[in-house]
Predict the 3D structure of the following.
Amino acid sequence: MIKILDLARPDILSLQPYQHAAWEPSLERMHANEMPWRASGDSSGAGLNRYPEPQPAELLVHLAQIYGVSPENVLAGRGSDEGIDLLVRAFCRAERDSILICPPTFGMYKVSARIQGAAVLEVPLVKAQGFAFDVENVSRIWREGVKLIFVCSPNNPTGNLVPRELIERLCRDFTDRALIVVDEAYIEFAQAPSVASLLPKYSNLVVLRTLSKAYALAGSRCGALLAHADIVSLLARVITPYALPASTVEAVLSLTDDAHRAEVEDRIATILRERARLQTELSAIPLIRRVWPSAANFLLVESLDADRVLRAAAAVGLIIRDPRSQPGLANCLRISVGSPEQNDRLIRGIAQSTGAAA
Ligand SMILES: *Cc1c(COP(=O)(O)O)cnc(C)c1O
């Protein structure tokens, strides 16, 4: 067992997991109290009358290939949100342990910690340096019991990538002391390699990937947690036994084959072009004070009047995100890069609202 597992909750380490019905596809199933017939009209591959395979082998092989790791390093779950939740539940003792986050960032880290009764330490990103990750302050603030350090890269909602060297430094500095959880939900838009290739080097590194963003499969709820095989095994004991619906597994396997992956590459290229265009055109609108550079499929903009921008977007039938409750984001809005037509409409809507006020 790797040393980093000493950080896990002792009761989870000794947990006797639920014994689900054995997966023996060569035998006919009379061991799981399922009905022997499909519901009429069920045209699924496996039959929805059957419980799905827990951690389906074919899916793990497939995800491992997409993400460039071994299948033993993959835990498949219902989006990366489930990975976040499993990590917090398996590593943080309620009322005793904590996580560390760097706001403004993705909201689920804090929510999962709160639900588990874990404390949340915050080391803000440095806005004056383009929301840079403050590794010195992370080291200064860390104390025993801080089990998980979340690094969102590219960060939601600021859009910046955290440098690979910095992530390596965190992995080294916190060897056997904390897991470095790198959330790469948007890495496909960053034109930078995933840090998953560092997994063989650092047993305290965890990488979260998702099919919700670049792969256009948010509704299927499928994500992958990539980590040392011992961490994957531990979390596989905590995840609900039949976490992934059969329909999700079938959809993911068929919608992420080679042809779809080529389509994903084309669409990413379009999003990057549109991101650059939105960046330029929004920057030229007087109501927009600044557009932050982005390595993701969204832009963080600072406006002279965020309420007016929200109204202007709604007036042309679009909703954009209002993240102003987060520290450091006064007057800011987050805009997902849409289709060329949607982006045109948004730009026109905001530009005209400026005109109307002049
Ligand atoms: C969207 C998002 C996710 C969510 O992913 P699911 O796989 O859909 O659960 C995770 N992390 C960040 C930073 C996100 O923005």
Observations:
- The longest helix spans residues 258-283.
- Residues 176 and 314 are 49 Å apart (CA to CA).
